[in-house]
Amino acid sequence: MRVNLPVLVLLALALAGIARAGDFDSRRQWMLERVQADWEEQAAKPGGNNRFYRAMALFEAGRMEEGRRLAHRGLDQLTPGNRENRWMFGGNTGFMAWPGIDLYLRCREQLGPELRERFRTVYTGAVFYPRLSTSNHKIMAAVTRYLATQEWGPEAFRPDPSFEEQHHAGSLFAKDDPTGEKYVRRIIADTLRQGPGEYASRPYGAENVLPLLTLAECATDETIRGPARLAYDLCLAQLAPAWLEGHLATFAPRSYPDMERQRPSGGAIVPWVYFGGTPPADITKAHAIRALLSAHRLPAPVITAATDRAKPYTHRALIGKWALTHYVNRDYALFSRSPKAGGPGFQGQSYPCGVMWKDADPGRVSQLWVTNPAADDNAMKGNEAGGLHTHGVTPYEQEVQYRDALLFVFDIPAAYRNPYVLGYIPGGARAVIDESRSSGRIFLHYGTVLIALSSPEPFTWEPSAGILAPSAKNAPGDSEFLIHRQRTAMAIETAHPDEFPGTTPEKQLQSFQAAIRKTSNIRFTEDGQAVSHYTDRHGNRLMCTFGGEDRVNDLPVDYAAWPALENPWMDQDPGGPLTVRDDRGSVVMDIPAHTGKK
């Protein structure tokens, strides 16, 4: 039978439109259809990632035999001596083992006796439970071991004889916490106190948050179920005001900056489940399938906080030791993180501060950022994309933000391996005015945002030079600039194009340029400490002192009193209850105070 290709294209666009504009249930139905279509394509050799959650979706769709077959294939990679999984002795096995125990507990009846027995044999004889280094590994291993113990009892665990003696300790989570229960309780409490591990991370955010949902629906102890459910809701509430129809417009440790797109991937697919927007390219491989298969729903005011973009607003948050500021103006967000709430930090897999915007092409990079890079060399061992991952954050930059202006100050040691400021400028601008070599300014029009970059001194930007050390394949036109100064300043000022007259992007950008030239200015001073100063187009004055006081309009910024969450929909002091409201009502999340450490 011949297939009309345009009809298929229209159908695909229609399905994507449902996933984008519809509610939770329509996104759920879209996922179920995609998983079944994926099964049909791969039925002869069911492989790929995320087999357990795809099996769960097949069970939900009533396809029992297909779900069992896919669950068996998932167990193949966890079976001792298999030739598929090189991470059998701990490593990254948690990415498979945690969804497996989740599937077992939620779909026990659909599995049948043969498959249930195979799960018991594999999970009680496994050595994939050890507490590893990063927070996603820890929570996945602890949740898996805790729930497996809940199901089969603490005495059931005996490493399979196929494992060498040296790996037998991997049948425990930790020597002083063999079942992982202590860690499970502590990570729930810590999440309630300071947010999830690897907050907003695209590669790893889902694996820090979704195990909380597993506990909320699979743990039998209500003293774990209830707090886990609350922690899960809090994680989504923290992301809601920074959601921009696919973008998580916020600082994110453990993310690779030039890999970010408005089309959500990894951890960003979890908020998409609840908030909608640009759909992921392939939902079938995402752990976020788990959220779409849950009966759990977020409080309505949290959805409002993620989707109401009618008016500009400021959103502040205290996540871990970082004081976060966001200015969200309908189609874009300017965001930053100050270390002055908890001390300077280093993060080799990260982006610090910048602008994200909605773009007509959600597959392009639509994020501009400035940093002193932790890594910027693909040739030197330990400083390449396969090591730290470019470009990251160092302790040598600090910043202060007020509404749509962001001011940096840099104090970089001369001996540091990357003694310069790096700015990342995506291609795709509708208009550009380059004054980098004269006034030290660049003006950019991206359709939904106007951006002015300002330096106290002229610098060189070569748009055709590309990216020295990308961590992903860059689109044509993506570029960067370097400012080879150890002590200097940088400012980003933004505006919505609707604020400026002009019948073309070029004319709008010229109007924006004229407003910036008229009032805005940047200065850098040195008198023992590095100090940057910026006046924005509205006359607001920002000052950032490296290792010292920040000021806005001559008033000190009080990081010691930074709110846990503060925006038009939310109020929360550190360690206190969170109130979320919209015009239909309010919800209070009773967050317990906690003073422990991770």
Oligomeric state as shown: single chain
Contiguous low-pLDDT stretches (5 residues minimum) are 1-21, 594-598
Structural class: alpha+beta
Helix segment tally? 15
- State the end-to-end distance: 60 Å
Largest sheet: 12 strands, antiparallel
Shape: elongated
Mean pLDDT: 90
Name the helicity range: 25-40%
The percent range for strand residues is 15-25%
> How are the strands ordered across the major sheet?
16-17-12-9-8-6-5-4-24-25-26-27
Radius of gyration: 25 Å
Number of β-strand runs: 27
Please characterize this protein's 3D structure.
The protein is of the alpha+beta class. The protein is 31% helix and 22% strand. The strands form five sheets. Strands 16-17-12-9-8-6-5-4-24-25-26-27 form a twelve-stranded antiparallel sheet, with helices on one face. Strand 1 and strand 2 form a beta hairpin. Helix 5 (94-106) runs parallel beside helix 8 (135-152), helix 8 (135-152) crosses helix 9 and helix 8 packs parallel to helix 10. It is elongated, with a radius of gyration of 25 Å. Mean pLDDT is 90; it is low at 1-21 and 594-598.
